[in-house]
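User: Show me a protein chain along with its predicted structure.
Assistant: Here is one chain, sequence first, then structure tokens.
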Amino acid sequence: MTADSSTAGDAPGEDDRPGPLAGLRVVEIAGIGPGPFAAMLLADLGADVVRVDRPGGPALGVDPEADLTNRNKRSVVVDLKSTRGPAVVLDLAERADILLEGYRPGVAERLGIGPDPCLARNPRLVYGRMTGWGQDGPLASRAGHDIGYTAVTGALGLAGPAGGPPYPPANLLGDYAGGSLYLVVGVLAALRHAQAEGGAGQVVDAAIVDGTSHLSTMIHAMLAAGSWQDRRGSNLLDGGSPFYGTYETRDGGHMAVGALEPRFYAEFVELLGLPADTPSREDLDGWDALREAIAGRFRTRSREEWTRIFADSDACVAPVLALGEAPEHPHLAARGTFVEHAGQVQPAPAPRFSATPGALRRPPARPGADGAEVARDWDVPALAQEPT
């Protein structure tokens, strides 16, 4: 059952209480991917995010009413190639705490809204730059996508079977984990400095290659210690071990197994019903046989049957759900991890705060729909006129 945001009780949802970032003003220069997600996260936590859209709508042609990364934001339309457009953005930057942009290096400068003019108008502004390759380096000016950024960091090479090619986990690893989340951490850290006595604004260079590489710190430590092999499907956490991986069920579903610790593994073996003569997990030479035995047992029942068997155990086994199934998982439903807002089922704001919870206040912003409102609230009269 998916909680409705207006009746979810303790679950995140539409709420009159301000989030922890209430009062924070953020300007988002419209882009795609990690920048909008970072701005959404700030908006979910209470920041007043004004998205500066281009005339003609989003570059990818996604229906704005379905683009959940634009929830909790307000939108104005500004033509940055017009005579008056850059001046309007500078007016917004003067009144903002944070500005986010995701252009290739040099583009914001050519448009007249780069860090120098923005910080000249507002010395305490935090100017966040979201790119794949970063602001410098041989590839800084090149196009790219998540799959390429994660490829050169070594992170993409971790995903996939030992005998097959690596595969991208959608664009979650690079764009959002290595990109958006590092941008948010960066601008909030810089904001603390800017708001301290004697503090000043600064530029935050958030590059997906930097963030994704940083995410792999523990793996690099294990590699240096000799406890990680630099090849796919050969390690404890990459599917190399038979007790940390996925198995197909009788009905074509899959179960995820993470029975790493011995006591959890013992419970797993008991509930799965492995025979006594199955090779020990300590016998590395017997891992292939152990994997075959585990796979054979999982093929005897459906995903739903195995889910019930492992439901109240510490065996660390879970069903592999599709995105559309996830909101109905009993635990996620009980926590209100997904909510329905404005007719759309969607992930609720995260993380959670005891005194200042995030909330879904607005559906995805339609380009230019909030010009007059922002003009009034931010005291930027030009926004109340025709798109600039």
